[in-house]
Specification:
The complex is a heterodimer of chains A (339) and B (444).
Chain A: H1 9-14, E1 34-35, E2 47-53, E3 65-70, E4 76-78, E5 81-82, H2 87-90, H3 102-123, E6 132-136, H4 142-150, E7 156-161, H5 164-172, E8 177-179, E9 192-198, H6 207-217, E10 218-229, H7 234-239, E11 254-255, H8 258-267, E12 271-278, H9 282-294, H10 299-302, H11 310-325, E13 331-337
Parallel strand pairs in A: 6-7, 6-9, 7-8, 9-10
Antiparallel strand pairs in A: 1-5, 2-3, 3-4, 4-11, 10-13, 12-13
Helix pairs in contact in A: 3-4
Chain B: E1 9-12, H1 16-27, E2 32-35, E3 47-49, E4 55-57, E5 63-64, H2 65-71, E6 77-79, E7 85-89, E8 92-96, H3 104-115, H4 124-132, H5 134-149, H6 168-181, E9 201-204, H7 209-219, E10 223-224, E11 229-235, E12 238-244, E13 247-250, E14 253-256, H8 260-266, E15 267-268, E16 281-291, E17 301-303, E18 313-315, H9 317-320, E19 330-337, H10 343-346, H11 349-363, E20 371-384, H12 391-399, E21 406-408, H13 410-413, H14 420-437, H15 439-442
Parallel strand pairs in B: 1-2, 1-14, 2-10, 7-17, 11-15, 14-21
Antiparallel strand pairs in B: 3-4, 5-9, 6-9, 7-8, 11-12, 12-13, 16-19, 16-20, 17-18, 18-19
Helix pairs in contact in B: 1-7, 1-14, 3-4, 4-5
The chains are: A alpha/beta (339), B alpha/beta (444).
């Protein structure tokens, strides 16, 4: 990675000409092609600026990004945002969702497996032996793998992900994963009992279109569980000017509150069955990490806040669990039903 | 009805405001034609570069990382790390605004002004005395405002100070954020959108003109260069058409960036804008002095309220943006208020350089040997002059042009001392209002 150390205050005052344009970025990266967009719920571009940031986590480009909030519905979205052709650039090969493995994440991996399996199974209550379950944006198949291990062995499990790397990783686990987009893949309609979109809806370019496509695949009465960052959580308010982990610049294109998630489901022709909170330490940890990185804190301190640090993850899991009891957790979970 | 079949909106002027309006309309699928009288876009938001490697803007311009990100040019902008203002007073330099509080009479009067009941404010002179205290107003603020405006502070409206308000606490907070981050955190710069420690100054590679080039790239096919609008036809208090090159083009609305005194002459079929024809703008000469020195001023801006100088402000843009000059060299811009056709306006560039140099020498002796030459930019419309007599009309104009379908935007179009970021966000806001108020546009 290009070192940020060249931007130290003292050096800058005497050697400004050496200052590079744009945000610090990794070797070989380039400015992205950015496109203006509208609010996906209102179909209007009537928004106020909310935060300016950069790719603090992966340093994939020198661009800086603007998160805006729709003045009508409150949706938070990135505008302008990377063109769809830039996905390979903004999801580098070391992107964590491509290989969340025990080898890389150790103890954290084990805890997350335990927590996530409980959460997922609670969503599967009432499903019969022949249930068909689809995970949209399944990444390396982490969640499907949990269902296979802890769920009903007769369930038919399938995943969808646009990334070749993710699909390969899932295939190595022996999972059935379709490579492509849910809107364009030829999957049978009225076929699935349950769909999961875990940390997916915020990454897609057309959330109503994606949810609409998922609705078509579901059987009447089938459900889709959407888990996404909560743009109205305390961490979002505290770090929302720049460093909030939920922005995940420039990969989270739409960020929701309970209200906007409800609007999204309705726009896609789904019935909102429930809207709740899920505790997660990730945005807390990343928000602090991003702030430390941006303020050029020493590396040893920055490294205390990552997906590999059980202490910070543990502390913020406890904090966020308490917050989620009062409806202010880091993540939102919506259960939508096809009428 | 598809986009091409609908009557277009006419935009007058392809500066920052006009181009912002055009991109807004494009993104809302509203057809438009952008008429620019000159051969190129950007207007006052252009950057001039010379063969010696110096770049000049019309006055010193900075933007923020927020505006750069909104336009998608963040990757082409450099972070500005130092920015400050100082005041020359009695031969000494004081940091602005907090450094001036070291002078007892300024501090005393400022505190007294805070504790007194709010007085009746009739003019800029009253406003500054009530807000800053008598000593600071009389010795610093009012001489500067008068030099800037070319009018007596007692004849200027109190609204001239509206853009200068920022609480002491907020200023301290932002200055601390700048110290902590090593970035030039915007302070008192942005009025349309909130300031915070996360919003700082940046400057685009190759100059401020990049903003307009970026916007123009999105709406290129809608721009008509060298096409001055000759008239805006109004019927029954509603805009109907524009005349360009002798041809009448029906329009659904007009967005003007023209100076308001020009706009009032363009509009036909109503006298609603007639009072604006008397509004004046302050002409300005920017004398850019080149020095073979890495830096000269103590801060980026040096305000000079003392009489006896031809300029009221010196700016060293290269202090904040050293890349505007070749390495080891600097650029100092002297702002000279003047009258079009007056003595200063007619003075040759070389003589203006010599005049400014001789006065810069009074402040910084021995700079003559480092002087390389100068480049002069003149504009007849640098700043609106907020005369009191304009106020009733100006206040009404702030709300509406008085003609349905006619919106006036931008620094000259709004007759307001707007900085670049405010021009952008205000224009977007006004365009939202326009689209909502014209039924055929809202239907888009």
């Amino acid at each position: 990675m290009t070192h940020v150390r060249g931007l130290l205050k003292g050096e800058l005052k005497t050697n400004m000409a050496a200052v590079q344009s744009g945000a610090p970025c990794r070797e070989g990266s380039r400015p992205l092609s950015l496109v203006p967009v509208r609010c996906c719920i209102c179909d209007l571009d009537d928004a106020d600026p909310l935060a300016v940031g950069e790719d603090f986590e992966y340093r994939t480009s020198p661009d800086t990004f603007l998160a805006v909030r729709c003045r009508r519905c409150g949706l938070v979205y990135l505008n302008p945002r990377p063109d769809n052709r830039e996905l390979d650039a903004i999801y580098p090969s070391d992107y964590h969702a491509y290989e969340f493995s025990e080898g890389r994440y150790g103890f954290v991996y084990k805890v997350r497996r335990w927590l996530e399996s409980r959460r997922m199974l609670s969503c599967c209550k009432g499903l019969g032996d022949e249930a068909r379950i689809l995970d949209i944006g399944c990444g390396d198949g982490f969640h499907l793998d949990l269902l296979r291990e802890f769920g009903n062995p007769k369930w038919q499990l399938e995943g969808i992900d646009p990334s070749e790397r993710a699909v390969s990783a899932a295939a190595r686990r022996g999972l059935t994963v379709h490579q492509g987009l849910v809107q364009t893949l030829s999957l049978p309609e009225n076929h699935y009992d349950l769909a999961f979109m875990i940390a997916t809806i915020e990454h897609v370019d057309d959330p109503p279109g994606v949810l609409d496509a998922v609705r078509r695949l579901l059987k009447p009465g089938g459900r889709v569980i959407v888990v996404t960052d909560n743009a109205a959580s305390p961490d979002a308010r505290l770090f929302g000017g720049r460093h909030w982990g939920g922005y995940h610049f420039p990969r989270h294109w739409n960020l929701f509150t309970a209200w906007t998630l409800r609007d999204l489901g309705r726009k896609a022709g789904l019935v909102v069955e429930s809207l709740g909170n899920v505790a997660s330490p990730v945005n807390w940890v990343y928000s602090i990490r991003n702030r430390l990185v941006d303020r050029r804190a020493p590396t040893w301190l920055i490294e205390r806040f990552s997906l590999r640090t059980p202490v910070s993850l543990g502390v913020f899991t406890m904090i966020d669990t308490v917050l989620s009891w009062v409806g202010k957790g880091c993540l939102l979970r919506a259960v939508f039903r096809k009428p | 009805m598809n986009v091409s079949e609908r009557t277009p909106v006419a935009i007058v002027g392809a500066g920052l405001a006009g181009l912002t309006a055009a991109t807004f309309l494009r993104r809302h699928r509203v057809p438009f034609i952008l008429y620019e009288s000159g051969p190129r876009v950007a207007g006052l938001a252009a950057t001039v570069r010379d063969d010696d490697g110096f770049s000049y803007d019309f006055g010193a311009h900075l933007i923020t990382n927020r505006l750069a990100s909104a336009l998608g040019i963040g990757a082409q902008c450099r972070t500005v790390t130092t920015y400050g203002e100082a005041v020359l007073l009695g031969g000494k330099m004081y940091g602005y605004p907090l450094g001036l509080m070291k002078i007892f009479r300024f501090l005393r009067d400022a505190l007294v002004s805070r504790t007194m009941p709010a007085p009746v404010v009739d003019s800029a002179a009253d406003w500054f005395r009530a807000t800053y205290g008598k000593a600071l107003a009389d010795e610093v603020a009012l001489p500067l405002v008068e030099a800037w405006s070319g009018a007596a502070a007692a004849d200027l409206a109190a609204s001239v100070g509206e853009k200068l308000k920022n609480s002491v606490w907020k200023t301290v907070q932002l200055k601390l954020a700048a110290l902590r981050s090593g970035r030039a955190v915007a302070c008192g710069y942005s009025h349309e959108m909130p300031e915070s420690g996360d919003v700082w100054h940046v400057y685009p590679e190759g100059g401020i003109g990049l903003l307009c080039r970026r916007l123009a790239a999105e709406v290129e096919d809608g721009i008509r260069l060298e096409s001055p609008v000759e008239a805006i036809e109004v019927d029954s208090d509603r805009v109907r058409a524009v005349k360009v090159g002798g041809v009448t083009q029906p329009v659904s609305a007009v967005v003007s960036t023209a100076p308001v005194n020009v706009l009032s002459k363009l509009v036909r079929g109503t006298d609603a804008l007639e009072p604006l024809s008397r509004f004046k703008y302050r002409p300005m000469i920017f004398v850019n002095l080149q020095f073979d020195l890495p830096g000269l001023l103590p801060e980026t801006f040096l305000w000079i309220p003392e009489s006896g100088y031809p300029f009221f402000r010196l700016t060293e843009p290269t202090r904040s943006m050293p890349w505007l000059a070749p390495e080891g060299k600097s650029l100092v811009t002297a702002d000279l208020g003047c009258d079009v056709g007056g003595e200063l306006w007619r003075t040759s560039d070389e003589d203006l350089g010599t005049l400014c140099l001789s006065h810069v020498e009074r402040i910084f002796p021995d700079v003559r040997g480092k002087y390389l030459g100068c480049r002069v930019l003149r504009t007849p419309i640098a700043y609106p002059v907020f005369l009191k007599e304009y106020e009733p009309v100006r206040r009404r104009f702030e709300i509406s042009t008085g003609v349905d379908g006619l919106t006036s935007v931008g620094r000259n179009g709004e007759f307001a001392h707007l900085l670049m970021e405010d021009v952008y966000w205000r224009t977007l806001r006004k365009m939202r209002g326009l689209v909502a108020s014209v039924p055929t546009l809202a239907a888009a």
